[in-house]
Amino acid sequence: MASMLAQGEAKGAMMYYALANLAREQGMEDAAAVFTEAANQEANHAGFYAALNGMYPRDFWALVRGLQKAESAGENSLKKLADRFRAAGLDAAVPELEIFAAQEGHHGVILQQLLDKYGKNVDTAGKKVYVCGCCGYEYVGDLDAEPEDYVCPVCGMPKKVFRRKDDK
Fold first, then answer.
1. Structural domain of residue 107, as residue ranges?
2. Cβ-based neighbour number of residue 78 at 10 Å
3. In what order do the strands lie in the sheet with 138-140?
4. What is the rounded CA–CA span in Å between residue 154 and residue 138?
């Protein structure tokens, strides 16, 4: 039940943010502000239900490490996407993508600062480490013991995209 609520609220947040952007484009700043407030609340609700459902571990620093890598890599990915949009003549979207790229990079920086301050180093000596091929999240432990429907907690990719870190 909590999982369905988390997903529903997350989709609601996305919808309200989209409505806010559309309203802003049409000069309706007051409507955009209302939609943004609703989106922020829906995102908060989604996070509550996700935590309630146990979708994220109580010892969350390994997850934050994966997010930090994904956010840092996201900056370059979005810059490349902006270049492709520009090449396709979709210039109107490029400034927003470039802003998003800078924000992703900043997220990587601030997450690293939090890791430096609070994140404990994970002792991986003698343990298997698997890396998500999509986002770089590192799973420490026996991935084979996870159910077949296990997905990366950062990007949602299936278990099959993980590779042993020491495999070349």
1. 61-118
2. 20
3. 138-140, 129-132, 162-164
4. 10
Question: How many residues in the chain?
Answer: 168
Q: Which two tokens mark 20?
A: 């806010």
pLDDT digits (tens, 9 = 90+) for 57-98: 667 888 898 889 889 989 999 999 999 999 999 999 999 999
Do 134 and 158 sit in the same domain of this protein?
Answer: yes
Pairing of strands 162-164, 138-140: unpaired
Q: Is residue 38 part of a domain?
A: yes
The DSSP 8-state label assigned to residue 58 in this structure reads: S
Q: What is the DSSP letter of 121?
A: P
pTM of the model: 0.72
Q: Do 80 and 109 sit in the same domain of this protein?
A: yes
Helix (H, G, I), strand (E, B), or coil: what is residue 43?
Answer: helix
Q: How far is CA 19 from the centre of its chain?
A: 21
Per the structure, the count of domains in the chain is: 3
pLDDT at residue 139 is higher than 70? yes
End-to-end Cα, the chain, rounded Å = 41
Q: Do 57 and 122 contact (CB within 8 A), yes or no?
A: no
Indicate the Cα dihedral angle 115, 120, 123, 127, nearest 10°. -60
34 located within any domain: yes
